[in-house]
Give the backbone structure.
Amino acid sequence: MTQKTIRDIVFSMANEPQSEDPEWPSWLLSVGRLFGLSPIQTRWRLSAVARRWRSFRREMAPASRRFEHQICAECGALQDNAAQTCTSCGEKLASPAARLFRTIGLSVPSFISASALLGGACIVIYFRMMMAWPGQGFGTWEGDAFITHGGLAPQAFFDGQWWRVGTAIFMHLGILHIVFNTVGLSQIGPAVEDIFGRGRMVFFFALTGVLAFVASAYLMPHTPTAGASGSLMGLVGVAAGWGHRRGTSQGIAVRNQMLKWGVYTIVFGFMIRANNVAHAAGFIAGAAIGAAFSPESLNKTRRSVSAVAMGIVGSVACVVFVMIALFPPASSRALALQVERGDQSVQDGKASEREFKAGMDRACELSNQGKQAEAVNALQSVAADDVDIASVMTSCMYLGWVKQNCDKYRAGGLDAVLSPEEKQGSQPKQAVADYYRMWCAAKE
């Protein structure tokens, strides 16, 4: 072997890539003797385990971490992995965290997106209520908290508290309720923002939510309700209508996906007895809106006068609703106080239970038809105390809660439906017991 050949071999060995196997300490290699292994055999075993672990980590790493580039979502151009702005179209690129979420099927709205702001408003209102009503909110809200902060009590809406069809959008009835809705908004909202623009998306959110609750008030006049799911279904409908109008393979895929979301929501709503009237009304309203826009003109009209006007109207409406929910007006507080004090109870000598039940049902029916004077007379004929329009409203509202809880009453008795405050007092407990016994004794 020549001297040159030896030098070449030494040079090639010096420039070989370094092994990824770590240098194992001598004490660890000597531990193998306890198992009958020599230090060399122990090194091989440890190195084999280390290589398998590295292979497992490479398999589990998201694609965004395994490649040194990323794709611009706006124009599709290939970009450096560390870039923050697309060099082709100038659009802001997604953060590493957002790209990681996308690899597992989730999207993350930017901090200042309309979806993030709307979801944040719902969360702020929820925590504001938990601070104002200690001990409530982990499961649901009592009637006084619900009424004070703008939950949709249909009778109150019909009697002039119009804002409840808007404030109810931002109010939720439990932690799981708000979690589901904010997560859903974070997935659907950004897509509608990308297609229609932020301003129009906020307008659609407010409009479809209001229409959903108006439909709920008219079709379920005795059912209190709240939550952003009507608005969320409205956005789902907007995307479905847009996809159907677009007619391309992409549009049809979006439409079909949104239809699945709608069906899943309705089915799940039946399972948990959610407000499917609001869900369906929101979806139908949104689908009509989405189909009304020409897909070809959307990008060109993002800064048009109509788009700006819709953004302003939607934003102002949402701000007004949020502020009313955070700082309730005196009329909401007064109504909540009436509900807290309780309703008319059956009194001996004034009317039999059968007459009282018929009179209450008749009064609520007349009130829903807008015949307030006749409703007052119907309730006055069977109630022991003086009756006015407010009495009719609070009585019918409470009756709606009773009918909603009949299944709980039949399954667990009076304790299953009483609030902690009602369990402590004897007179309110008796009044509540009268209502549940009369309206829930048998299935209607």
